[in-house]
Amino acid sequence: MKKLIVIVSLALTLIMIPTETSALGTETDREVILGGEPFGVKMYCDGAMVVKCNENSVSQNIKEKDVIIKADDYKVESTDDLTEAVNNSNGNRISLTIIRNQEKITEEVIPQLESDGQYRIGVWVKDSAAGLGTITFYRNDNMSFCGLGHGICESNTGTIMPISRGSIEGASITSVTPNQNSEVGCLNGFFTGSEIGIVKNNCENGIYGSLSNKKLDKPSIEVASSDEIEKGKAFIFTTVSGEEPKEFEVEIKRINKLSKTQNLVIEITDEELLSVSNGIVQGMSGSPIIQNNKLVGAVTHVLVEDTNMGYGIFAETMYDRTEKITEIRKAA
Predict the structure, then answer these.
(1) What pTM, to 2 d.p., does this model score?
(2) Structural element, H or E, at residue 200
(3) Element (DSSP H or E) covering residue 273
(4) DSSP secondary structure of 39-71
(5) Which alpha helices (DSSP H) does the chain contain, by range?
(6) Per residue in 164-215, pLDDT tens?
């Protein structure tokens, strides 16, 4: 069985480059603005996530992937908040409120005084993440966006990060580190500093949010239903230099309607892209997949043992998720 690696990055696009198979879709109920360009994302955890427990942890009941949201009367919104609460304890017992497997529990710990004069409870925690990725599409009707096609996970635990706030901004690709000897490469670039939107949701199907500063004056394309997708020639839109996406040829090898996220198996066949990246690299996740003039999916994973091959998620799954952005905006 081949190993999988999640492409841990993000990117966005809204430029559509017309070709024989990337013509504009006709008017339907599911039309979007095509993505493909890179974006930078900054996300902050809803609490402090435990990524490692030391052997001498003062509480054997604290586990990796726990999210600490409160320490006694202190609300924990960052690692600094937890550090301050532990130090202010002066070694007295602390009651920690923890989210574990979507349930709220309470654990008590007694901080230990270390040789540097600081109190600690023997866990490593994390409160934020940042990276590059690719936007799949934007919606004009509810001013939403989506990208990646998979969630942003904490690198040590593989857990999807619960977020309290986050934002995306423009990015520019400066170079590509190609795949080599089963080592997955990556897109290299920088954030341009221009905020595009606010992240509302980080889930197994990608990241989703509301646009705050983006003009959607580009042509639209229809989102295909899963029944319309077929094996054979297709294209992906992705950016390997600068901020503008290009169209590259791929082949859809397999279609799986039963999976929640691994719906398509694709193979990179475009010689230009292969010469630059040697297949799918980190940062391409979210790159839209086009077939028969419609948006059918987004790149999500790469096969480590054959980096020309990878997985994709159905575009209609991502579109359905953006429907919730309308509900969020109304509630706000």
Answers:
(1) 0.77
(2) strand 186-203
(3) helix 271-277
(4) EEEEEEEEEEEEEEE-TT-S-TT--TT-EEEEE
(5) 79-88, 271-277, 315-331
(6) 788 999 999 999 999 998 789 999 999 988 888 999 888 889 999 998 877 7
